[in-house]
Amino acid sequence: MKILLIYSSRTGNTKKVAEAIYEVLPEGSVICPVDDNPSYEDYDMIIIGFWVDKGLPDVKTLKYMENIEGKKIGIFGTSGAYNDSERGKKTLERTRQLLEPRNEVIAEFICQGKIDERLLERYKNRGPDHSNPMTEEKRKRHEEAKKHPNANDLNRAQEVFRKII
Ligand SMILES: Cc1cc2nc3c(=O)[nH]c(=O)nc-3n(C[C@H](O)[C@H](O)[C@H](O)COP(=O)(O)O)c2cc1C
């Protein structure tokens, strides 16, 4: 089985998960950033990794996904949402819906990923009057995110994709 793994990563979290998954793929598989816009026609399966923006894959990934048809697909992402959270599940569900029924999604994984320090700096200054204010709940979530993706996340991602090959 020829597998293409493409990923989009702004700050390195998704790249880390992508490289861990790539380690368990069969010889001959190809890993490639979405920026290189690789052709996927020759592959039996495509694994797509993205960072989450507004609950969906980032724009570059959305654009790449648009044209894919008739393929078996695996999806994985990293996001600011807690591991095993409803928000994470919802992102995977919405991503699957964007690919099906013209493709078949056969594996999925999502985990938390540390959030860009520059963005956190901006969030810090949002007072209670801001339309999207900083809260104690968010502060805790951002603190937890700083620990991810960790070794356990990488192992779990490998497990998911090991199973399907
Ligand atoms: C501009 C921006 C927007 C983001 N929007 C969301 C979001 O809507 N939901 C979410 O859960 N995480 C969001 N995040 C967090 C990222 O998805 C998360 O940190 C991810 O692991 C980044 O992956 P990367 O290091 O591969 O770029 C956002 C991060 C940035 C920088």
Q: Could you explain the architecture of this structure?
A:
This protein has helices spanning 13-23, 59-65, 86-99, 117-124, 136-145, 151-163; strands at residues 3-7, 30-33, 45-53, 56-57, 72-79, 104-112. With 165 residues, the chain is α/β, with parallel strands linked by helices. It starts with a strand and ends with a helix. The mean pLDDT is 96. The chain binds flavin mononucleotide.
Topology of helices and strands:
Blueprint: E1 3-7, H1 13-23, E2 30-33, E3 45-53, E4 56-57, H2 59-65, E5 72-79, H3 86-99, E6 104-112, H4 117-124, H5 136-145, H6 151-163
Helix pairs in contact: 1-6
CATH topology value of the largest domain: Rossmann fold
C-alpha-based Rg, rounded? 16 Å
- Distance between the amino and carboxyl termini: 8 Å
User: Which ligands appear in the coordinates?
Assistant: flavin mononucleotide
Mean pLDDT, to the nearest integer, reads 96
Would you state the CATH class of the largest domain? Alpha Beta
Determine the CATH superfamily of the largest domain.
Flavodoxin domain
**Overall structural domain count:** 2
* CATH architecture assignment name of the largest domain: 3-Layer(aba) Sandwich
Shape: globular
Q: Biggest sheet, in brief?
A: 6 strands, mixed
H/E element order: EHEEEHEHEHHH
Number of helical segments with 4 or more residues: 6
Strand content: 15-25%
Number of strands: 6
**What structural class results from the helix and strand content?**
alpha/beta
List the uncertain runs. none
- What is the helix fraction of residues, given as a range? 25-40%
Protein name: Flavodoxin family protein
InterPro entries: Flavodoxin/NO_synth, Flavodoxin_CS, Protoporphyrinogen_IX_DH
Organism: Tissierella simiarum
